[in-house]
Amino acid sequence: MGRLWHLVISLVLTVFIGYLVYRGVPDWGEATRVMLKANPLWLLSGLAFITLHMVMRAERWGVLLSHTKKGIAWKNLLTLTLVKYVINVIPPRVGELVASLLLARKEKIPAASVVAASLFERILDMLAVVVLFGFYLLFFAHLYMPNSDRGEEIILAVRRHSILVFLVLSVGIGILTLLLRSSRWHGCIPGPIRRLVLSFVDGFRALHSASAVARVLFLSVAIWLVITAQLWCLTLAYLDDFPFTGTLLIMALTVIGVAIPTPGGVGGFQFFMNLALIHFFAAYLSGQDPRSQAAGISNGCYIVSMVPVILVGLWFLNREGLTFGRLTELTREAGASRHTHDGERQ
Fold first, then answer.
1. Sign of CA dihedral 100, 222, 268, 25
2. Model confidence at 208, in pLDDT bands (50, 70, 90)?
3. What is the model's pTM?
4. I need a surface site. Which of 73, 96, 203, 314 has the fewest CB within 10 A?
């Protein structure tokens, strides 16, 4: 029943956001023509950055788990990084959880440790996005001022929430680091769940090493710079000129769109990219029909960003002999494992 509700909510949100996007586009025929006229060289450049993005995510995952097990097969890290994206297309987006269970089984390490590392990756991603957006606000926002009242509302709302998120994440990571560097609190954990909790904490052991922390932080920022470069190349496939620094704003806004629990972030990505193009970068669009042009660009960027990754991920799923039925079983098993003390059963 829980999965059904996730699907229903996702479907309702998809229809609602799809309606918002649809009503905001004057000419879908023009939007389609824009989308199909992309420069193939810039699209290939975007695909190269997408590949680099996946490689760097696999590398970061390996660094976070290096203190749990030495020599984790890089092939498994890359394969399951792509599998995450395939599973996350379908609500309730449990790609990190399922991929963590699969990696734990392949490498014979505690599942709770891998889940903890994957959770920490999401925290690092949010922190990196907020830091890069803060960098944009400090040094480049004045170059691309909003050209409408709506644009001013958007930038003020995102700025306000970014400051809050940055403070919360910074405090949370600080507290987590202090807790992990001390073992005094271990004795306060009830015996039946102590093994599970300590296995989970083991997934954060990378924080004990200054070199590992430096590598993880560097990779986290680099990943989102690569994603920004990917978006920049894909945007240039449709526009003759567009600033790389302006793409930092598009990156931050599309992250909000993808966070909306629609299948694969569809609709949300397009909606927020359209907002950015129309309200901040209208000078780079056609003066005749900028809204239709923006819709064509955002749809093209979404398709090129998502479809190749999903296809490759599906190929890896097939090679691993995994069906969606088997993945559903793993998801249920993951949920059950939260209520058992045997954290190393996987």
1. negative
2. confident
3. 0.86
4. 73
pLDDT digits over 54-96, tens only? 999 999 999 999 888 888 999 999 999 998 888 888 777 788 8
Proportion of the chain in helix, strand, coil states, percent, rounded to 5: 80, 0, 20
Instruction: Please write the tens of the pLDDT for every residue from 106-159.
Output: 999 988 888 888 988 998 999 899 899 989 988 998 899 898 888 888 888 888
Give the pair of three-digit tokens for residue 227.
């994603």
Encode 45-80: b = buried (16+ Cβ within 10 Å), e = exposed.
Answer: bbbebbebbbbbbbbbbbbbbbbbbeebeeebbbbb
Domain ranges of the chain: 37-337
Tell which residue, 146, 126, 122, 166, has the closest CA to residue 252. Answer: 126
Q: Which amino acid is at 26?
A: P
Alpha-helical (H) ranges within 89-180 are 95-107, 111-139, 149-180
